[in-house]
Here is the input.
Amino acid sequence: MNQKEQECFVGIDIAKSELVVAVRPTGAIQSFPNAQDGLSDLVEWLGPLCPTLVVMEATGGFSRAAVNALAMANLPVVAVNPRQVRDFARSVGLLAKTDAIDAHVIARFAEAVRPEERPLKDLDTQKLEELNTRRRQIVEMLTAEKNRLSEARGWARKDIQAHIAWLEKRLENANRELDDFITKSPLWRRKQTILTSFLGVGPVVTSTLLCGLPELGTLSGRKISALVGVAPFNRDSGKYRGRRSCWGGRARVRAALYMAALTAIRHNPVIRVFYQRLREAGKPFKVAIVACMRKILVTLNAMLKNNTCWNET
Here is the structure.
C-alpha cells in the first residue's frame, strides 16, 4: 500500500450542539455532542485512524474547544476561514447544504488544498482574545444605546441613560482587566511598551494586535500585510492591467489599524508626511489611508522583530 492510499483526511462540521465528522477516502461519517464528553469520544474515535489532517471551519467559541481538544491529543488540526470552504464547494459544483454534506466538503477540501498547520494559540492568548472581544461587544452596545437615546422619550430615555451608565462602568472594568492581564506577562508587557511607543497606537490597538495577530514580529513585511489584508493584489490578464485591490485578511485587526492610521495622520510626523504626499499625488482617501495602515503594520512588525521602540529616524 503506497503513502497516498494510507492518507486519511477528516472534515468536521461544527454546530452549537453537535459535531458531524466525515472521513476521506472511506466516506465514513459520525456525529458527536459538542460537549466535553463528546470531544473525548471524538479524540478516541479519531486516534486509530491516524489522520493526515483534520480540518474544521473557524466558528469562534463553537470550534475553539474542539481545536484545543484535538491539538492536546497531538492530532494535526487546522481551523480555516469558512469562506474558503464555501468557495471550494461552489468550485466543485456542490450547492446542496446539510451538516453531513458540509462535513464531506470540508474533508474533500482538506484532501485537495491541504491547508498549512498553524501554531495553536496558548491559553493566555485565548483569554486575552476573550477579554478583548468582550470589551468590543460592550463598546458596540454603548454605541447602539447612545444612538437610541437621541429619539427616546419619557421612561425609555431614563432607562437607556441608566443602561449607558452601567455599560460605561463595565467598559472601565474591561479596560482595567485587559491592562492588568497584559502587565502580568513580562513578554506582553515588553510588546505593549514597543507598540505603544509608536505615535498613533494606543492600548486598544495593542491588545487587538496581541491577540488577533500573534504572528506580528515573526513574518516579513509582505507576508504580514497579506495576512491582515492590506496588501494590494494584481488583477491582470493578458494585456489588461486592472486596478489592484486588497482582499481577505483579518477584519478586526484592519479595523484597529484604521483607527491607528487616523490618529497617526494627525500626531505622527512620519505618517502625516506620507499621507499628505499620497493625497497631493492625487490618491483617493481610501487608497491613502490603506497605504498608511500598511506602513504602520510593517513598521510595528519590524519594531517587534528587532525589539526596538519607535524612532522617527
